[in-house]
Amino acid sequence: MNIFFHLCWRNLWRHKRRSLIVISSVAVGVFAMISAMGLLNGIMEQMVDNTINTALGHVSIQAKGFQNSLRSEYSFIPAETLYTAIGRTADSQKGYAPRIKLKGMARSSASSRPVIITGIDPTKERSVSHLAEYIIPSTGSFIERADEDTVLISKNMADALELSPGDNIIIMLQNTRGELTAAGLTIKGLFTTPVENFDRHTIFVGLEKLQALAGFGKKISEISLTLKDRNASSAMKTALMLFVQKAGLEVLTWQEMAPNLVRSIAIVDTMMYVSFFIIFITVIFSIANTLVMAIMERFREIGVMKSIGTEPRMIFFMVVFESMLLGITGLVFGIAAGYTAMKLLSIAGIDLSRYAQTLRAMGSGSIIYPSVRAFDVFMATAIVLITTICAAIIPARKAARIEPVKALSYI
Amino acid sequence: MAIIELNNLIKHYDVNGLSVPAVRGVNLSIGEGEFAAIAGPSGSGKTTILNLIGGLDKPSEGQVIVEGNNLAHLSQKELSDLRLRKIGFVFQAYNLIPVLTALENVEYVLLLQGIRREDRKTRAASILREVGLEAEINRFPRELSGGQQQRVAVARAIVSEPTIVLADEPTANLDQKTGESLIELMHHLNRTKNITFLFSTHDPMVMDRAERLMHIIDGQIISDVRKHTKTPKPASSRKKR
């Protein structure tokens, strides 16, 4: 196949400028695709990481039915064997922490708000979430003991309820007996996470304090685990499944706990790929035009090739291969430029502080660190190959149908 | 034994709705190993006959039988295969592939035959050596003289060891000395490899060197002479081009 490759490759360079224009258009298209996807990936990854780091965790062990209801009847007492099983996966995890999550109300003298009251073990929580880091230092500090009469609320909620650190806040909830219970707790600190929606509805209380308030005893709602590798959540689920099933519990991955987030990423990805496919349809015409001109110029030569025994399908394949070479050359330059640019920007980050409010509403920070996924490179390659093959079909058929006797008399 | 048979061959072209006859009832039989030429003025039908024999064109009526195969019964793929393995072509304008070197141009035919790379290179280099282009194998056609390009074309035509070479006015673009040298080369290949050569020509030197000479006028063979001895005319008797 060596000569065939040489033949196709050298044919491209008969008209350098013409081929370079096509290659450049493919390269610019691929560069734009890699860059746009890199930027979006950066935003999406921050959305995922922030959601995981605020309260979701990578994997959660909980009773079946808890995820969609947050009801107290789905609480459970974790057996020692469960902790032993979790301990066996220590190599893959950053840490684990027990939590209680209950629906309730937060009230001040000025206003009230529906909230999710989350009971946390202050020591263990530091290993699974970034909550301690999200505390605004000037407003106070993180919870120190699990039984203290304090609460952490967001800056957003403090403003809405017109409360300040050190003030009392009333929290109301339904205990395990179905009775409404309330307690006054002191605001120990205010936090701001990158996920605006989370801040609107979540408050944190010491685990033991909440167990006492809700009549949970030693029960908890879930054990949240954070992993070293986000993509290992399914493997961790499989590893833990056997132990938790015996206890009537289930293991949920972050994808299962935040399906809307996963769907959003898939929709954005699909929209981007469709957009790029549409953009590359314009490239089809550019390549097809180049190929038609090239074939007209080589009309006689193709006739000679057929007259010495070249089969029409080989002529067809030659034109398709030339088109693919144009596309692949542009693809290589486009990927190289796009990847290099995104790699450099991923170190420095792109400051989008101007759009911080919008990004925070999406759950992302305002400094974006672009990230190029192997899948995006694969998709760029697939789109370019498909478009270049499509572009070549009509010119290639035209070339394959050239009649040698007409071509040989063509001047 | 006839390697090419033309039976009542008729070909007419449709030009602006008018039927223009190019070949009118040609009957011809060419035996294996012949060194024959069809001579005649421009437009007399020489090239059309070669194209019909090579399966590049289809007759309006009559039969073309090559090595026992009636070309009318062959598919496009079978015709391609016949041209690839049995018939070599040499054109007036050389018609080499400009982006391939001399070696690659010759090797290309072997690639089509599915021959392994090492064998291809060896055979192509050997044929080029045989036609006297050992030093030029890595040159592109634009770096070769007209005579050298035509020798590459001859090498390309015979590398697949065909039984027939159809040469359409092969000396028309060459000077006298180069043309003579080329015909001598072809004659040598005819004798040593027993390849049947059929030329179309109006070059007196080619007519003189042919062992069989057919004259065609207005699409009809008007004479068919077999010569048993060859006495090349002095170079000075040829027309300068």
- For the record, the count of structural domains of chain B works out to 2
Provide mean pLDDT of chain B, rounded. 88
- Average pLDDT figure of chain A: 90
Overall helicity of chain B: 25-40%
Q: How many strands in all of chain A?
A: 11
Overall radius of gyration of chain B: 18 Å
CATH class category name of the largest domain in chain B? Alpha Beta
Protein described:
The complex is a heterodimer of chains A (411) and B (241). Chain A has 411 residues and is an alpha+beta fold. Chain A has helices spanning 2-12, 16-56, 66-69, 80-88, 122-128, 131-134, 155-161, 196-201, 207-214, 233-246, 254-257, 259-297, 299-307, 312-348, 356-362, 374-400, 404-408; strands spanning 59-63, 93-107, 112-120, 150-154, 168-174, 180-191, 202-206, 222-227, 249-253, 350-351, 367-368. Chain A starts with a helix and ends with a helix. The model of chain A has no long low-confidence stretch (mean pLDDT 90). Chain B is of the alpha/beta class and 241 residues long. In chain B, 33% of the residues lie in helices and 29% in strands. Chain B has seven helices and ten strands. Chain B has a six-stranded mixed sheet with strand order 6-7-8-3-9-10, with helices on both faces. Chain B has a four-stranded antiparallel sheet with strand order 2-1-4-5. Chain B starts with a strand and ends in a 15-residue tail after the last strand. Chain A binds chain B through residues 1-4, 6-7, 10-11, 14, 300-301, 304-312, 314, 404-405, 408, and chain B through 51, 54, 56-57, 76-77, 80-81, 83-85, 88-89, 91, 95, 97-100, 104, 107-109, 111-112, 117, 156-157, 160.
